[in-house]
What we know:
This protein is α/β, with parallel strands linked by helices. It is built from five helices and seven strands.
Amino acid sequence: MSVRIPYSVKRYLRIADCLLTRRKEVLTYRGLNYRFYHTRWWDTASQYIFDEEIVPYFDAIGDFEPQTIVDIGGAEGHFAITAAKIFPACLVYAFEPSLRQRLLLSRNAYLNAVKNVEIQPIGLWNKEDSLPFRTRSEERRV
């Protein structure tokens, strides 16, 4: 027999996990180490995922030295934190509407001692609106 856990309880547990988790992974790129907290419910902190999803963006940039980077959908901060470390003179704006992801992004920025990431608690769209948004499980309006 399975018990259906209410969404509000799941959300509370996931937020608590983001705030309290001590699980960390060390990822490497260009000779630098990046440390990322990961939770039970959002475990994307792996070298494989990092190499597949994040590294191609930086390989495409080449020798370009940006002054500003916008990370739309900052999630737990893999891209934003890597950009902040590779380009320390650059300001990185990370937009993330999910509270859980912002908590991880903030903790990961602190863990990696980056000060040039500015976290924005909104999603970006082509007009002002309230849209359905899902990070996992049920879809909620933000």
